[in-house]
Please model this.
Amino acid sequence: MPPFEPLTRSDALDAWREFLPKVPLYASTRNAVQPGHSNVSRLGACIRFRTLLEDEVIRDTLERHAFGAAEKWLQEICWRRYWKGWLEARPAIWTRWRQRVRTLRMELPAERLARADAVAAGASGVACMDSMARELMETGYLHNHARMWWASFWIHVEQLPWELGADFFFRHLLDADPASNTLSWRWVAGLHTPGKSYLVRLSNIEKYASHYLAGDATGSERLADGSVVTTVPEDIDPVAVQPLRQAPASFTPSSKSFGIWLHPDDLVPEVGPLAGLSPTSIAACFSERIYRETFQLSSRRIAGLKVVLRDALERASAHFGCATLELEADDPADALCSWAVENKLSEVVALAPMVGPVHDMLARLERLLEAAGIRLTLLRRPSDATAFSFVTAGFFPFWEKMRRHLNEVYI
Ligand SMILES: Cc1cc2nc3c(=O)[nH]c(=O)nc-3n(C[C@H](O)[C@H](O)[C@H](O)COP(=O)(O)OP(=O)(O)OC[C@H]3O[C@@H](n4cnc5c(N)ncnc54)[C@H](O)[C@@H]3O)c2cc1C
Model:
C-alpha cells in the first residue's frame, strides 16, 4: 500500500495547493473524522520532516485568506512549533520517555504487558478503538480526534502506561514527531496542564465519527459518557527547564571546503539559511538498524523516512550542484565524521536537529568532528527562534504572542 500522506516536497506542495482553498472551512469541519479525511490537510508528515515549511504554509494562507477566516488553521499549524519549543527547553522529557519504554517492557507484569500488546494489536474488544488501532497500522495515519480518543482509552479506560501507548503511535504514525507525540500523550494523561486530562466520551465519537461504530458497537459501553474517569499517572519528577541552545541564523564559511549535513528534522535546504551556500559535498545518514532495533519503527515508517531523505538529497543536488551522498550506517555519527574527513572538509553546517532521535547522537558527532579538527555549525531558522522565544507557558499565551507577530510580519 502506498504511503497515505504526501511525503516528497512535490507531493507536499501539490497537496497543500489543493487544500489551501479549503482553509476557511477548516474551523467548522476539522473535528469530523471522515473516511478519506478530505476535511483535514494530511500534511503532518511533510511538516514534521519539513519537506514543507510552516513558514510557507503561513505565508500562502495569509496571501489568500483573511486572518480571521484562517485563524483556527494557523493556530493548529503553530501548535507543533509550540510543542517543539516546549520540548527543546525540556529535553529530559524525551530521554526519560525513551528510558521508561525500555524499563516498562522489562518490568511491567506479564499480564499487563500482554494486555498492552493486545490493545495495540487492535484486539481490545472495544470495536471502535480496535478499528482505529488497525487504521493506524494499515495507513500510518489517524485523525487528531481519533488520536485523542484512542490515547484516552489507553490511559484512562485500559489504565495502561501512557509511555507505551505513545511508543505505539511513534512506531506507526508517518508524521511521528518527538515533541507533538510525546507531549500530546502527556496532555491526554493530564501531565501537561495540571488538573486537566482528556476523557473520551461515547457521545463525542457518535457525533464526529459514527462510522467507527456503525455495524459493530461491541464494548462501547466502556466509553459511556461519565463512566471514564481520570487516572492521572504519577509523573516521575518535575522536569527542569533548560536555556535553549544558542544557534546562529546564518553561516559564513571560513574556507571553501565545507559540507552540509541533511537530516530528517529539516529537509528543505534550498529555502532558508543554507540556500545561498556553495558546499563541497552534502550528506545524509540513515541508520536502518537504529530505527528498526532501538525505535522498532514499522516498515512503513522506515520506508517513509527513506523517501523523505532521498527526495531531499535529489533536490539538494539540483540546487547546490555538488556531490550528494546517502550514508547507511549503524553508527551515524561515525559515518558522518568519516564523510567529512574523506572529503577534506574543514567545516560542517546543518540546521540544528531538534530534541529526538537525530539530536540523541549530536554530542557524539560533535566530539568526533572536534577530534578530527572539523567545526560543526548548527543554524536555527529565525522563525523557529522567534516561535520558541514565545513558549513560556500554556498554548494560548503563546498564541497571543504568535498572532501579534504574524500580523506584524505578514499583514
Ligand atoms: C495522542 C496524540 C498524538 C499525536 N502525535 C502527533 C505526532 O506524532 N506528530 C504530529 O505532527 N502531530 C501529532 N499529533 C497532533 C495532531 O493529531 C496531528 O498533527 C494531526 O492530526 C496531523 O494530521 P493532519 O496533517 O491531517 O492535521 P491538520 O488538522 O490538517 O493540521 C495541519 C497541521 O497542523 C499541525 N497540527 C494540527 N493539530 C495539531 C496538534 N494538536 N498538535 C500539534 N500540531 C498540530 C500539524 O503539523 C498538522 O499537519 C498528536 C495528537 C495526539 C492527540
Summary: Residues 258-380 form a domain with the Rossmann fold fold (CATH 3.40.50.620). The chain has a mean pLDDT of 95.
